[in-house]
Design a protein that fits this description.
The complex is a heterodimer. Chain A has 17 helices and eight strands. By secondary structure, chain A is an alpha/beta fold. In chain A, strands 3-2-1-4 form a four-stranded parallel beta sheet, with helices on both faces. In chain A, strand 2, helix 7 and strand 3 form a beta-alpha-beta unit. Chain A is globular, with a radius of gyration of 22 Å. Chain B has a five-stranded mixed beta sheet. Chain B folds into two domains: 88 residues, Arc Repressor Mutant, subunit A, CATH 1.10.10; 94 residues, 3-Layer(aba) Sandwich (Glutaredoxin). The chains are: A alpha/beta, B alpha+beta. At the A-B interface, helix 5, helix 7, strand 3, strand 5 and strand 6 of A face helix 2, helix 5, helix 7 and helix 8 of B.
Chain lengths: 417, 207
């Protein structure tokens, strides 16, 4: 059985885990000092060496992303933390900001130092006032402790941090839409290239990283890349927050090495809530294809998930037992994408609309057999033809559901029952 | 309530936090919403003046984001998550029950002006499904009975406490918090069993 490794969550059971005193009691902010001794290039090298990959869903290597920022270009650089957690199923960054916001702030200082940014933003989802309070306080306390502002700890490095609230748009989790939103515009994605590392916020070099990614950096610096790589697999090194929800006895946050299996996570979550077994699960948020009980022992890594036609995504599995309807789950996910489509490109805007119409017809028992092929066809028309990843995400639930549960869809056709 | 000089100076304070004025626009819209209960034409006009945009440009931004309301919101904004997981775990039945109870539907306000209902999307609290929100504060692990009590308490101005957060205030109050003004409530409890599930399991297993 893979062992859990509480790292970011290690002190959440202490009543002051979210305060600067609580954080510093366990060595908090020592990684900032160490980073200043190493120098920015060595920090990037260490993060590269650790193999840390983006925890927001895409899994892009973090050190490599930082390395793309041109140096000595004379332009201001920006670090933007994507704290707009809104993916259905994802619920790890919000708890992290509530319980351990200083790990994020410390990670921000180190990352900004590494990419030579003197201004950082934490873009937090607007609908989450309590995490906003906690992160704002953490930033204020870091300023008071001279860990932010001018000449941090006598290093000569200056950093200003602004905590920014979004306003209810899932699309702003897409990094270029987030940047447009942070510039005070409608949150619509930008054409890439140029990538944010070259022309991001205010057309300047910008790194956008997920909360968990940035919060993982202090431990990598403190304990070293070799320590971090001692967890997980070669291609998916390290530790991850797994938020397990759905029909398990004790849904919650489980911090474990990558490579833990769904069966093990369900076990840690106390097993299934009833005697009913797993019918399907979604390993990384609704934007990744679902899996079935035959996949319970597949390691939760980037590469193993890809080998089984899905993705690790946000690493926040939703588990559904045999009492649940896959068609009902799918229609709500597609309704979500329809609502959250920004409208910029036709395949996503119109395609999600068509799919909802057809799925609702099926739910009413008025579907035709041709509707099932039409759903697959529309998904294929959206996927890869949309402006950004939201469209691709909208195209994932239906084909996977039809692949494993076509018979359930067929019970929804006219004349059946 | 009109937008006063005090609010205008707070809007300028928000602008001063950013390298470019326009970046403050979302927080500014939250702030004008906190004053008037929704984003009024006056709110749009004032934001446009302060940032140096046209009212059309500001309207275009305000209308893009679900949190900005272009009609009066009740004293409390109540959300019911109806995304897949919450819906199947009871969100749908909660929604049916309280819409019946209140006699209103999505984006509508009760006749007493106490409650505006909204079918909301995933709130990043799936480990606490089914989830509701009151003025965006978490109301976790709900069921029909709890939802009915919640609605009744809100309507009769009884004290209601978020399961991970402070005592419930008003939609206007929380809009101000979201805009980026401290409310002194940071120390209200925010950690619960589900957030500690893994740590507990690890300690039991001796890792």
């Amino acid at each position: 059985m893979t062992k859990l490794v509480p790292n970011l969550t290690a002190h959440w059971d202490e009543t002051d885990s979210y305060t600067i005193a609580g954080y510093q009691r366990h060595g908090g902010y020592s990684a900032v000092k160490k980073s200043f001794e190493l120098g920015p290039d060595a920090v990037i090298a260490e993060v590269k060496e650790s193999g840390l990959r983006g925890r927001g869903g895409a899994g892009f290597p973090t050190g490599m992303k930082w390395g793309f920022v041109p140096q000595g270009d004379g332009k201001p650089h920006y670090l933007v933390v994507n704290a707009d957690e809104s993916e259905p199923g994802a619920c790890k960054d919000i708890p992290l900001m509530m319980a351990n916001p200083h790990s994020l702030v410390e990670g921000v200082i180190i990352a900004a130092y590494a990419i030579r940014a003197n201004q950082a933003f934490i873009y937090i989802r607007g609908e989450t006032p309590h995490p906003i309070r906690r992160v704002r306080q953490a930033v204020a306390d870091a300023y008071a402790a001279k860990l932010l502002g001018k000449n941090i700890l006598g290093s000569g490095f200056d950093l200003e941090v602004v905590v920014h609230s979004g306003a209810g748009a899932y699309i702003c989790g897409e990094e270029t839409a987030l940047l447009d939103s942070l510039e005070g515009r409608r949150g619509q994605p930008r054409l890439k290239p140029p990538f944010p590392a070259v022309a991001g916020l205010y057309a300047s070099p910008t790194v956008v990283n997920n909360v968990e990614t940035i919060a993982s950096v202090p431990a990598v610096i403190n304990n070293g890349a070799a320590w971090y790589k001692s967890f997980g697999t070669e291609k998916s090194p390290g530790i991850k927050l797994f938020a397990v929800s759905g029909d398990v006895k004790r849904p919650g946050i489980f911090e474990a090495p990558l490579g833990i299996t769904m069966r093990e996570l369900i076990d840690y979550a106390g097993g299934m809530v009833s005697e009913r077994p797993v019918k399907f699960f979604v390993p990384g948020g609704s934007s990744v294809p679902l899996l079935t009980p035959e996949h319970l022992d597949v390691p939760l890594t980037y590469e193993d998930m890809a080998a089984h036609g899905t993705m690790l995504g946000t690493g926040t599995p939703m588990v559904f037992d045999t009492s649940r309807s896959v068609t009902q789950a799918v229609v709500r996910w597609i309704e979500f994408y329809k609502h959250e489509s920004c409208g910029k490109c036709t395949p996503c805007r119109e395609g999600t609309y068509f799919m909802v119409d057809i799925l609702k017809r099926l739910e009413k028992g008025k579907g035709q057999i041709s509707d099932l092929d039409l759903l697959v066809d529309i998904s294929a028309q959206i996927s890869g033809r949309s402006f950004c990843a939201l469209g691709d995400a909208a195209a994932t639930p239906v084909p996977a559901a039809l692949k494993y549960f076509r018979e359930e869809f067929e019970t929804k056709l006219v004349g059946v029952k | 309530m009109a937008i006063t000089e005090t609010t205008k100076s707070e809007l300028r304070e928000l602008i001063s936090r950013y390298p470019e004025p326009r970046s403050a626009l979302l927080p500014m819209l939250h702030l004008v919403q906190s004053v008037e209960g929704y984003v009024t034409q006056e709110g749009i006009d004032v934001c446009a003046q302060e940032v140096g945009l046209t009212t059309a440009e500001v309207s275009a931004v305000a209308s893009f984001y679900t949190m900005f309301k272009r009609y009066p919101v009740g004293k409390h904004h109540v959300g019911v998550c109806v995304n897949s997981l919450c819906a199947l775990k009871g969100g749908d039945s909660i929604w049916r029950r309280i819409t019946n109870e209140l006699g209103i539907g999505h984006d509508e306000t009760s006749a007493d002006g106490q409650i505006t209902l909204e079918r909301i999307e995933c709130q990043a609290a799936c480990t606490h499904a089914p989830v509701m929100t009151v003025n965006w504060e978490f109301m976790d692990d709900m069921d029909e009975a709890k939802a009915v009590t919640l609605i009744s308490n809100l309507r009769s101005n009884k004290e209601v406490k978020s399961t991970r957060g402070p005592k419930v205030r008003t939609f206007k109050d929380v809009s101000r918090t979201i805009a980026g003004f401290d409310d002194g409530l940071v120390d209200e409890p925010g950690i619960d069993e589900a957030m500690l599930a893994g740590l507990k399991a690890a300690k039991q297993a001796g890792s």
